[in-house]
Amino acid sequence: MSAIELESIHKVYQTGRQSVHALRGVTLRVEEGQVYGIIGQSGAGKSTLLRCINLLERPTEGTVTVAGKRLTDLPARALQRERARIGMIFQHFHLLQSATVADNVAFPLRLAGVARRQARARVGELLELVGLGGYEHKYPTQLSGGQKQRVAIARALANHPSVLLCDEATSALDPNTTRAILDLLLDIQRRLGLTIVMVTHEMAVVQRVCDRVAVMDHGQVVEEGPLTEVFVSP
Ligand code: ADP
Ligand code: ADP
Fold first, then answer.
1. ipTM here
2. Mean pLDDT, rounded, of the chain
3. In the structure, what pLDDT confidence band is assigned to residue 38 with cuts at 50, 70 and 90?
4. Which residues, judged by CB distance below 6 Å to any ligand atom, belong to the binding site of ligand 2?
5. Is the shortest distance between the CB of 20 and ligand 1 below 6 Å?
6. What is the residue with the minimal CA distance to atom 25 of ligand 1?
7. Fewer CB within 10 Å of terminal CB in the chain, N or C?
8. From the CA of 47, how far away is ligand 2's center (Å)?
9. pLDDT class of 228 with cuts at 50, 70, 90
């Protein structure tokens, strides 16, 4: 069973009288435990495709299957449950500025109905995992970019996801911090057996961590394969 299967995905954005055909029949398979890169120019549809995996965007056509569950067929409540097991991190972290680190990380736990005491223990564990033990009572404004992304990673892992989606997760970070975050992601991936899908426009990121890549252009996958095959030297 593949971790993720996307079958003939189309996405048309309708804004007023304009429509944008952002995805034009994308079929992809990501195996369990892979670090999978999605690359391509700005506007190619990378972010849209990533958001279709957890149905943050609903495909106009096609099916999405994660961990054997066909998400595009699920009723709302069941979908919500499955979605909790797909973590996501973003370029600009998307932390709640007025909440402490602990409350940010606990947010998805509260949503999932985890009791306060258990949530507190889990938050401690998650912060240790990302190297921020003892940061519970800090606020996002007191943290560096790399530390904010670590908090976001902890939050994304709160509900024991099988899949982590990364949308330009290192694009706002300097090169050293980028390396540290990528190494952390790889370490977590190995320890937890996660499947990671990352959208990036940074070649260095792909080359450092990805097993396999898809190259997108104008809403389609134009090349796909193991890193070593897609990037053969000319
Ligand atoms: P990438 O991540 O490769 O830069 P995107 O998936 O963000 O590409 O965008 C693909 C296309 O879809 C672009 O033309 C973009 O302008 C359009 N698009 C993305 N999100 C929306 C939206 N919410 N509404 C309308 N058009 C969108
Ligand atoms: P980022 O990827 O850094 O969050 P973007 O500018 O790519 O920032 O996108 C911000 C939001 O705007 C996203 O939710 C995206 O779906 C949406 N968006 C992108 N392109 C368009 C567009 N052409 N029309 C409407 N919304 C868009």
1. 0.77
2. 96
3. very high
4. 15, 47, 91
5. yes
6. 13
7. C
8. 9
9. confident
